[in-house]
């Protein structure tokens, strides 16, 4: 079926089966490969994007169901990579292999948008859906606090 | 977006955007430039416009040094480490350094110019620093020689410091002499610096590959997009060792976007790590369509003999073998058998077990292949693949395609983790074979389920220790009997056979159980699982003899400088004690692997009803020297998360010859809320040797955790995952 997706401020007309997960439409149809496949069952969070500002596992929502909504991927988080979460990620050299980090950053950015100064417990709750096999968790926690401190 | 085109021989140097258009040219205000420019999102592209001093590096007119890193960047910091070692010898400001991934084709066709492109075994710094540093030293001497000739002085009179050449009143940047240096032939290559005589090595340098990894622009194999590319989903026989009997493509060929089904034939009976297994692939115009069609296609397998194997069956067979003398043995020192026989049941016995575990790299195995057998560029293969050795992947591609290696190009990408699996999957052969058969570039992606089902796993290990004690409570005779699996039983030996404790009479035995599950290297192979048994058993032996576990280890490794340094540092800084109120415990363990000796001290609290809280993990690390403490500490933290995932929640279960828990809903990994505090404490010998760092903190952390649980609860954790055990106490 044909529908229009609003991704990072641009409209994309796509023609895919209605049940196609947003993840694969972003990656294969539109060509935004910053959003990653990790498990396909909403367990690892590598595919996290924002739908109307809320962090969502894009492997687990159909693209058709988010037509007309505002979708933001890692590529659209900031025009020049200057979002405070990205800055804090660089300063703390958070990524190791880096593959999960798009999802981690999108989850962290969604948290800070609603909770500007999160506690450790709030960070736990917001980030528990994102697996990092390299174990960068301590750096992620510190970077979120640092990003929060940037105001 | 622009798609990459493979139109010219100089493909590698053509700059074509990929990954979404808006994201290139990324600079973060206020961040040192080196971090933003250290490496490009497409790490295989060589941006160098400068002079090539040798195969390892170029220097441009602004004295920017671009290092070609022959090793895979999979999160361990290869790019940064290689650049540091070269900058150390070349003596240039760190801000001048850039990196790219080296060209495998050049390595293969120009006499292995990078010596060895394999990335694993924690070898990069510990075993490859001589030739990597040599590349930097050689370039430095060529610059000095070029300046000496121009200035008509001797090379000894020319100083090369921080990117500047000086001799008397003459001064010039490296960039000014780069072109001349490229033409210099040295009579003899210079020696590299003496250990410890460094200005950059040993300092904390931020990783060079961070910037493209925070904006989605870093390209992994799964992100490569080529003009005309199609997608393939594959399924190998879910019972390893089985073969495809039939498939019905007609049933799915009318589905949207479906292009072809391709049978992948197994040609060898006994498979090496990257040999192709019997499998079926469905090709479509998007991955989701390919995967969905594959799921719906009727497929019949001949599962073969593997169906007889299960976790329960292997466990029962292994436990029976633990009670019998094994045919394979090593009489390491003396003979404990008469002592054990005479002691009857007055011996210390401990049994341990760790199951299969898999790598579960966040990026599942993926490969993109473009095989051209006709057309102006033919014959030619271009490949982007999951790998820890681009040169080995190139030879696989050549072999599978039948195209000469000199016409094969492997474009190194970032890897989304690898952990040993990068040399142990057949995704490269699959992609090359499918691309060859369908005549179009193809991207093969393994689903997470396929990755776990086909993983060449970490082997299981069972072990039993039997020890006699003397009057002083120290061991007089010890037998360690391990049971491994038949595919590579020697993994069971690591640490069990060659532990450093000087028991007067020590014998090691090993038996094997049959299985169909393939195995391969997995972060700190062998030691990772074996240490869980051995280092808990050492605690059992120490306590049975009335010894403090830390004091016992210090006593039994007397004269072993590397171990003494770690153990004495542990005693000095960790505050280890067995005198804690019940419910609270500290545990220690020490393991030597991959050239380093590493201790762990873990502090836990366990509630009466058995809830476990890991308060702190202290890692005491002796790698001789440390290249980059910042990266080293990130690796230590990662190692702890890695092994704790397995010991707390993991364990692959086998039934009917197939892995049962194949995705993250039932193969659990550590998540952020459960990550303990990890401290890195250095205890370096600084004595002319260099150990590894990328995996060395994995082995000691689990037994130290289990020993801590014992002191907190009185319960010995004899198998993993720990989550299955009742840790309650009263």
Q: Describe it for me?
A:
Chain A is an alpha+beta fold and 151 residues long. Chain A has helices at residues 22-30, 84-91, 101-114, 120-127, 137-149, and strands spanning 2-7, 10-15, 48-51, 54-57, 70-72. In chain A, strand 3 and strand 4 form a beta hairpin. The longest helix of chain A has 14 residues, at 101-114. The N and C termini of chain A lie far apart (43 Å). With 730 residues, chain B is α+β, with helices and mostly antiparallel strands. Chain B has 16 helices and 27 strands. In chain B, the strands form seven sheets. Chain B has a seven-stranded mixed sheet with strand order 10-11-8-18-15-16-17. Chain B has a five-stranded mixed sheet with strand order 13-21-20-19-14, with helices on both faces. In chain B, strand 6 and strand 7 (170-173) form a beta hairpin. At the A-B interface, helix 1, helix 2, helix 3, helix 4 and helix 5 of A face helix 6 and helix 15 of B.
From the N-terminal CA to the C-terminal CA of chain A, the straight-line distance is: 43 Å
Assign the structural class of chain A, choosing from mainly alpha, mainly beta, alpha/beta, alpha+beta, or little secondary structure.
Answer: alpha+beta
Biggest beta sheet summary of chain B = 7 strands, mixed
What's the total helix number of chain A?
5
Number of domains of chain A: 2
Radius of gyration of chain A (CA) equals 15 Å
Tell me which protein chains meet in the greatest interface and how many residues each side has.
A-B, 66 and 75 residues
How many E strands of chain B?
27
Strand content of chain B: 15-25%
- Poorly predicted ranges of chain B: 1-36
Name the poorly predicted regions of chain A. none
Compact overview of the structure:
Chain A has 151 residues and is of the alpha+beta class. Chain A has helices spanning 22-30, 84-91, 101-114, 120-127, 137-149; strands at residues 2-7, 10-15, 48-51, 54-57, 70-72. The longest helix of chain A has 14 residues, at 101-114.
């Amino acid at each position: 079926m044909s529908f229009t997706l609003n991704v990072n401020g641009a409209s994309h007309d796509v023609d895919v089966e209605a049940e196609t997960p947003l993840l694969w439409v972003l990656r294969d149809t539109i060509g935004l490969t910053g959003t990653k496949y990790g498990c396909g069952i909403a367990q690892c969070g590598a595919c996290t994007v924002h739908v109307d500002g809320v962090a969502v596992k894009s492997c687990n929502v159909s693209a058709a169901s988010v037509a007309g909504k505002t979708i933001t991927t890692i590529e659209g988080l900031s025009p020049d990579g200057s979002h405070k979460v990205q800055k804090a990620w660089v300063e703390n050299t958070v990524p190791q292999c880096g593959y999960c980090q798009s999802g981690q950053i999108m989850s962290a950015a969604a948290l800070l948008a609603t909770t500007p100064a999160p506690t450790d417990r709030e960070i736990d709750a917001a980030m528990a859906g994102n697996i990092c096999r390299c174990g960068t968790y301590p750096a992620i926690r510190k970077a979120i606090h640092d990003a929060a401190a940037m105001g | 977006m622009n798609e990459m085109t493979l139109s010219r021989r100089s493909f590698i140097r053509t700059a074509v955007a990929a990954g979404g258009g808006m994201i290139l040219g990324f600079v973060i205000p206020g961040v040192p430039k080196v971090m933003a420019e250290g490496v490009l999102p497409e790490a295989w592209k060589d941006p160098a416009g400068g002079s090539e001093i040798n195969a390892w590096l170029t220097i441009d007119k602004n004295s920017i040094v671009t290092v070609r890193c022959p090793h895979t960047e999979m999160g361990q910091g290869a790019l940064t480490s290689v650049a540091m070692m070269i900058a150390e010898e070349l003596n240039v400001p760190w801000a001048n350094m850039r990196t790219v991934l080296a060209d495998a084709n050049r390595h293969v066709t120009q006499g292995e110019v990078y010596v060895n492109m394999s990335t694993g075994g924690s070898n990069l710094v510990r075993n490859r620093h001589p030739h990597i540093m040599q590349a930097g030293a050689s370039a430095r001497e060529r610059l000095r020689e070029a300046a000496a000739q121009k200035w008509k002085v001797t090379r000894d009179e020319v100083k090369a410091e921080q990117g500047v050449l000086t001799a008397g009143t003459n001064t010039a940047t490296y960039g000014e002499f780069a072109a001349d240096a490229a033409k210099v032939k040295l009579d003899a290559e210079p020696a590299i610096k003496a250990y410890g005589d460094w200005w950059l090595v040993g300092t904390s340098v931020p990783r060079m590959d961070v910037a493209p990894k925070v904006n989605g622009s870093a390209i992994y194999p799964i992100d490569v997009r080529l003009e005309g590319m199609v997608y393939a989903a594959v399924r190998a026989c879910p019972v390893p060792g089985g073969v495809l009997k039939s498939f019905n493509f007609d049933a799915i060929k009318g589905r949207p976007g479906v292009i072809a089904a391709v049978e992948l034939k197994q040609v060898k009976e006994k498979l090496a790590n990257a040999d192709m297994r019997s499998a079926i692939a469905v090709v479509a115009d998007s991955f989701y369509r390919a995967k969905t069609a594959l799921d719906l296609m009727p497929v019949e397998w001949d599962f073969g003999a593997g169906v007889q194997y299960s976790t329960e069956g292997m466990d029962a067979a292994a436990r029976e073998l633990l009670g019998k003398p094994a045919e394979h043995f090593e009489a390491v020192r003396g003979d404990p058998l008469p002592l054990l026989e005479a002691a009857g049941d007055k011996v210390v016995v401990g049994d341990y077990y760790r199951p299969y575990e898999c790598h579960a790299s966040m990026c599942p195995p993926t490969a993109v292949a473009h095989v051209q057998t006709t057309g102006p560029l033919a014959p030619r293969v271009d490949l982007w693949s999951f790998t820890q050795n681009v040169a080995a992947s190139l030879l696989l591609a050549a072999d599978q395609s039948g195209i000469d290696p000199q016409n094969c190009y492997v474009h190194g990408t970032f890897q989304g983790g690898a952990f040993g699996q990068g040399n142990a999957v057949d995704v490269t052969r699959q992609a090359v074979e499918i691309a060859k058969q369908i005549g179009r570039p193809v991207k093969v992606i393994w689903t997470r389920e396929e990755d776990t089902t086909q993983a060449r796993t970490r082997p299981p290990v069972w072990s039993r220790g039997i020890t006699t004690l003397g009057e002083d409570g120290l061991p007089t005779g010890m037998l360690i009997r391990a049971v491994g699996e038949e595919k590579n039983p020697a993994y069971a030996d690591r640490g069990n056979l060659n532990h450093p404790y000087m028991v007067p009479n020590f014998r090691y035995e090993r038996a094997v159980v049959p299985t169909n599950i393939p195995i391969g290297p997995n972060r700190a192979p062998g030691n990772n699982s074996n240490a869980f048994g051995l280092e808990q058993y050492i605690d059992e032996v120490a306590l049975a003899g009335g010894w403090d576990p830390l004091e016992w280890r210090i006593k039994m490794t007397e004269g072993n400088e590397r171990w003494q340094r770690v153990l004495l540092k542990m005693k000095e800084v960790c505050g280890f004690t067995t005198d804690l109120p019940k419910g609270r415990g500290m545990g220690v363990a020490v393991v030597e692997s991959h050239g380093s000796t590493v201790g762990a001290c873990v502090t836990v609290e366990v509630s009466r009803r058995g809830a476990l809280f890991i308060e702190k993990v202290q890692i005491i690390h002796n790698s001789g020297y440390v290249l980059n403490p910042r990266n080293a500490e990130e690796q230590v933290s990662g190692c702890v998360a890695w092994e704790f995932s397995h010991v707390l929640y993991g364990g692959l279960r086998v039934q009917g010859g197939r892995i049962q828990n194949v995705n993250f809903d039932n193969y659990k990994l550590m998540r952020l809320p459960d990550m303990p505090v990890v401290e890195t404490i250095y205890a370096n010998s600084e004595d002319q040797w260099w150990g590894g760092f990328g995996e060395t903190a994995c082995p000691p952390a689990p037994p130290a955790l289990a020993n801590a649980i014992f002191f907190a609860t009185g319960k010995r954790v004899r198998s993993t995952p720990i989550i299955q055990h009742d840790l309650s106490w009263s």
